[in-house]
Amino acid sequence: MAQIVFYLKSEKLDKQGKVSLLAQITSDYRPYRMKLGKVRVRDWNKKSQRLRLSSVTSKEYDENAKMNSFIDDVESQARILFNKVTKQRRKPSEFELKNLLNVPEASNVLKSTSLMDVFSDFIESNKSDKAKNTIKGYTTTKNFLIRFQEATNFTLTWENIDVKFIDKLKKYTYLTEKKQLSYYAKIARVLSTFLHWAEERNYYHDNIYPKLKAEEPEKEVIFLSMDDLLVLMDYKFDTIRLQKVRDLYCFACFTGLRYSDVISLKREHINNKLLTKTQVKTGYVKMIPLNDFALEILKKYEGDENPLPRMSIQKINDYIKECCKTIALKQLPNTGFNVRVIKKSVIGSETTEESHPLHEAITFHTARKTFITNSIMLGVNIKALQDMGAPKKEKDLRKYLKITDAFKSQVMDNTWNVLSLNHIPKELISQN
Questions:
Q1: SS3 helix, strand, coil % of the chain, rounded to 5?
Q2: For labelling, which of 42, 140, 158, 362 has a CA lying 20 to 30 Å from the CA of 220?
Q3: Half-sphere exposure in the Cβ direction for 212 (13 Å, CA)
Q4: pLDDT of 355-395, one tens digit each?
């Protein structure tokens, strides 16, 4: 005989002290389950299989009452099905049971759960087709919002996502956590993505997106000139550790690959002088012709299992700074890796600039910037460069073009303008 029970899933409590509530129908010794939503463990009465309504806040009362009503509806529909098949002297079919446990009322209960519960579902639902770093960004935003709620005593609900919430979020971001404008822009971007997702699933119905939008400030492009890159490429480091990290960094400088793509590179991705790989971050397939510098690096590791050494991003960033500092110690002040670069910080309306020697500002991410900038300076076609992974959006590409324009002006000063200064018209010579 078929029967239905409701119980709490054995899992770790979330931040609100909630776990999943499941409905299970057992028929012919086979269980069929459905998640009804999330409930507070302390409110669950195992004997009655309902949520308590006494000694709770008015908000908790409404949530618990809606969930109890939904449980009643599911149980009622199950009883109707059980009575029907009993009269017909048969067992419920698998289709009937699955159809019962996918009743449309389930979405109404999920809507009554907290916004942060739905945010968790949003993250889980995207794990199957989003890049690992994208999911990491979603999780970072969720954790940030949890900290925001705890610090401000502001509980996020579907109803209070308004301009006042945005004001509080900005104030917390800039004044409490001392985060930059770029950080807030990323939080706002993920939050907008989540709200669009929630709107499509009937959780959210307002339009706060224009108010949430925040433009990230244009960042300075820190890169190695071709001269500095070749010095780094040819430098004889004493340790294998520094030699390997130099090769990883330089390979990225010669191909434009991100860390996630360099570190996951396999020999199957390389066919003669062509590298074909699906980018980890974007999911797009990129075909990159390998220049002689990149091929020279690959040749060093022909006998290894992987085409390039493997190393964590933390170690790479530490070691590549060490490489550049080693070279800087043998260079003159304000030259090569001792050149001062400006790092800008924007927190709210306050902008600060700090000067650092180039060797302190180098991270693995600057390798990609080095590839793009030097490629443009060398005259590589912009469309071809974008096909190899350079930014496609004009606003993202603009900062690189600014640098190359400045470089062209410098070249002009060092060549044609020098010639013009040295040129003395004949009429001036005759006057003297």
A1: 55, 15, 30
A2: 140
A3: 18
A4: 889 999 999 999 998 998 888 888 887 888 777 767 667 66
